[in-house]
């Protein structure tokens, strides 16, 4: 039985939590040992940010630097590998900024994620790589 719905839910919980500044909800999408990396517009690798605390500091600092309302739209989810307690998933991000009565496309990206099903039954990110197409 596929966990696709559960996996998609984790990705969507992450996006909505970021957009609503719900850092407790976002933290719950990451395993304690999670690692996050990113690359912006083909530049140098940023990170790794190792451990949930480091990942959440990056997210909190990023959100604090923004004056607009962001919408992270996650689509085209493809499960690349799945076992009973682990999965590799790729998906697209469309990042939209809402400010001054306008919605503006900031960037698009490819998410490359590895998730595990933990002892409490919840799926969480163990690795997340964000390959942004454009700087924002």
TrEMBL record:
<dbReference type="InterPro" id="IPR032710">
    <property type="entry name" value="NTF2-like_dom_sf"/>
</dbReference>
<feature type="domain" description="SnoaL-like">
    <location>
        <begin position="2"/>
        <end position="129"/>
    </location>
</feature>
<dbReference type="InterPro" id="IPR037401">
    <property type="entry name" value="SnoaL-like"/>
</dbReference>
<protein>
    <submittedName>
        <fullName>SnoaL-like domain-containing protein</fullName>
    </submittedName>
</protein>
<dbReference type="Pfam" id="PF13577">
    <property type="entry name" value="SnoaL_4"/>
</dbReference>
């Amino acid at each position: 039985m596929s966990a696709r719905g559960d996996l998609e839910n984790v990705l969507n919980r992450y996006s909505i939590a970021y957009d609503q500044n719900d850092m407790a909800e976002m933290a719950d999408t990451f395993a304690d040992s999670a690692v996050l990396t990113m690359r912006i517009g083909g530049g140098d690798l940023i990170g790794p940010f190792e451990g949930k605390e480091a990942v959440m500091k990056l997210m909190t600092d990023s959100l604090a630097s923004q004056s607009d309302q962001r919408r992270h739209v996650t689509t085209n989810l493809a499960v690349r590998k799945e076992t009973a307690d682990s999965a590799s998933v790729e998906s697209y991000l469309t990042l939209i900024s809402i400010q001054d009565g306008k919605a503006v496309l900031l960037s698009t990206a490819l998410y490359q994620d590895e998730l595990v099903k933990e002892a409490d039954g919840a799926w969480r990110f163990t690795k997340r790589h964000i390959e942004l197409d454009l700087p924002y």
